Amino acid sequence: MTTDATEARGATAPGSPTPAPPAGAAPTGTTLPDRTAVAPAHERRRATTTLRGTDVYAMLGSAAASLSLTWLFFTRLAPFSGGLGFVVFAYVLFLALYALLVSFDENGPAVRDRIASAIVHSLAVILLVALAFVVVYTLWSGRKALPHTNFFTQGMKHAGPLDPLTVGGIRHAMIGTLIQIGIALALTVPAGLLCAVFLNEVPGRFSRFVRTVVEAMTALPSVVAGLFIYATVILSLGVPLSGLAAALAISVMMLPIIIRASDVVIRLVPGTLREASYALGSPRWRTVWHVVLPTARSGLTTAVILGTARGVGETSPVLLTAGFTAVTNLDPGNGPMVSLPLATFEFVKSPQPAMIARGFGTAATLLVLVLILFVIARTIGGRGPGELTRRGTHRRVVASRRDQKRFAERAAARASMAYSGPTTHHVQSPDPGPAQGVDGS
């Protein structure tokens, strides 16, 4: 009976051969795919780049054709001459040929898009080439003065226009620049940050008026700032030409930059952080000090560095307020104090080659200093509000692990106390008194 039931279910004993299905019956069981069959081809990956091969070929062909036709026009067909005319003619012809080639494959909007893209990229290349030319030309022209150690360790007290580059240097200008920028930062950083906080935390008509004035002052000519300090501080108050007056003029130029950049950064702080702080009962000043400013710390640092870079390179305000001297002056309130931009201006005015080389060396030093400041600002400003550096992230991770370990130890201590059980107290039962009989006697 068991055998019949087993056969009825089609079961077979382990190790026994599987019986063949009867003739004409449909095959039963799972059918495995044939591994020898050729797998279907995968779908071709679609290119997502905006730059295609046809665009590159059209651009290269248009450039080659425009150069060839421009050379033919300037040398054979037309009485054209001049390098600037050659470049302008070749560029216009390049745009026309490029639009013609693109129109063979694209419609009108695509052609206009390609032409606009070509113009924008051309302008970017022109600006990059101009910047590289300024940097390279300045460094190359100052190569004669920069290798000398005395150029950075000596002043011009014992050097004249005819002395070689082995005598004299820009120590007095470097020290003067550091002193003036230090005073300007001491004045502008607190005032700029406070003004930016006021513009964001106390909205109203007056804040809108202040923001308008700040935006207008960002485009203020530097000579106007120098004239303002010269008229109000030097002529009205009787302050002599000194590093203090130059620092005040530099502060006028730095302050709008710091306020504007800080204002933009503080605007990026999420409003939910402020709302959470207010919900916890914190006043406005505590919210600003413990929530807003720490969140925007990297952006505020970038704003200060940008303002510093603007103040370091100012020449006109310093020319009107600082005076000029060839010796090192450490007192900003007494006597003229020269800075790097002013020293560059005075050196290049001389017709002597040595003085011109000193001027370009000073300009190269100033240029490298400004580039370093902008690189630092770019590095710090690349992070968003509240985003930490690698070191800050590592400190947070270490602190989190330390807190986790402390919480685990506290939980283990509580668990051990729970497992030990409560302390048993023996309570004596009350004395029932002498036994009484059934009848109560």
Written overview of the protein:
- This protein is mainly α.
- It has 2 domains: 53-141, no CATH class; 160-392, MetI-like (MetI-like fold, Orthogonal Bundle).
- The protein is built from 16 helices and no strands.
- The protein has helices at residues 2-9, 53-77, 83-103, 108-141, 150-153, 171-201, 205-217, 222-236, 243-267, 271-279, 284-295, 297-312, 316-321, 340-348, 353-381, 390-420.
- Helix 6 packs parallel to helix 9 (243-267).
- The longest helix is centred in the first third of the chain and has 34 residues, at 108-141.
- It is extended and about 105 Å long.
- The N and C termini lie far apart (85 Å).
- 26% of the residues are buried.
- Residues 1-16 and 434-441 have low confidence and may be disordered.
- Keywords: Cell membrane, Membrane, Phosphate transport, Transmembrane, Transmembrane helix, Transport.
- It comes from Actinacidiphila rubida.
- It holds the Pfam family BPD_transp_1.
- The chain crosses the membrane at residues 54-74, 80-103, 115-140, 173-200, 212-235, 241-259, 359-380.
- Part of the binding-protein-dependent transport system for phosphate; probably responsible for the translocation of the substrate across the membrane.
Offer a quick outline of the entry.
This protein is an all-alpha fold and 441 residues long. Helix content is 65%, strand content 0%.
